[in-house]
Every structure is written in C-alpha cells, then in structure tokens.
Amino acid sequence: LLALTAFICIETIMECSPCEGLYFFEFVSCSALVVTGALLILFSLSLHTRIPQINWNLTDLVNTGLSTFFFFIASVVLAALNHKTGAEIAAVVFGFLATAVFALNAAVAVQRWRLGRRQQSRQGSEYMRARSESREVVPRPEIQRLDA
C-alpha cells in the first residue's frame, strides 16, 4: 500500500525540471508494486505450493531486499532533487516509509529462509543416515541355512 501511495503521489506531479530522479522513483515504486503484488497473490491463493521447484522463501527474500535497496536509493535521490512541492514531499515520505516496511519484511524473510535451510539440511542428514543403515549387512540365520 505504501508503494502504491508513493506511486500515486509521484504521478500527480505535472512538471519537473531535472526529471531523472522522478522517473527513477516512478520506476522503482511501480516495479515494487507489481512484483510484490504478484507474490502477494501467489501466496494468498496458495498457488506457490503448485510449483515446489522454486524456493519461495528465497524469492521473497530477494524481492524484499532489492525493493528495500532501490526504494531507499530512489527516495534519497528524489529528496535531493525535489522542488519542495507537496506531491514530491509526500512521495519522499511514503518512499522512506515503504523502505522501512520492506526492510522489516526482509528481516522476517531472512529468518524464514534460514529456518527453511535448517529443515532441508536436517532432512538431508536423516536421508543419508537411513541410506547408510540400509546398506549395512546384517547376518540373517535363515539365509545362512539355505546356503548350507
């Protein structure tokens, strides 16, 4: 919602002199909105369970990390190059708020990703132990009786 609000604020600006900062902020806010919205729909409808080949925790981590980084850069650039209009100031404020929320979400995504890695390594070690136990030769008397 913050990315959407920042995008709406930046779209209300009618004229700009150096427009590069404005265009960059517009691109970042729109991209974050689209990608995060698509992931939100995938997760809320549980469509991500149909594609188990993708590490969704890592996908969410990469999205939130990149969104945090680019929103911060775009907000700093827009804050440095703005013309002190209400829409630009509002866009900068919502950009920094979006940066903070994406950073918080990135921290949660890191924890989920680490938890997922621990569970995968635990499952892998249990598989290796079971596999090595199944290869152990156990002397069975009924087989020895048949050989004799």
Automatic annotation (TrEMBL):
**In this protein, which residues make up the domain named MARVEL?**
1-114
Q: Which residues cross the membrane?
A: 22-49, 61-83, 89-110
Broad class of where this protein is predominantly found: membrane
Q: Which InterPro entries match?
A: Marvel, MARVEL-CKLF_proteins
Cellular component (GO) terms are: membrane
Give the subcellular location. Membrane
**Signal peptide location:** none
Record carries keyword Heme: no
* Alphabetical keyword list: Membrane, Transmembrane, Transmembrane helix
Topology versus the membrane, per the UniProt entry? Multi-pass membrane protein
Q: Where is this region: Disordered?
A: 124-148
Instruction: Mark out the compositionally biased spans (Basic and acidic residues).
Output: 128-148
The name of this protein is CKLF4 protein
Species the sequence originates in: Cardinalis cardinalis (Northern cardinal)
Instruction: Give the gene that encodes this protein.
Output: Cmtm4
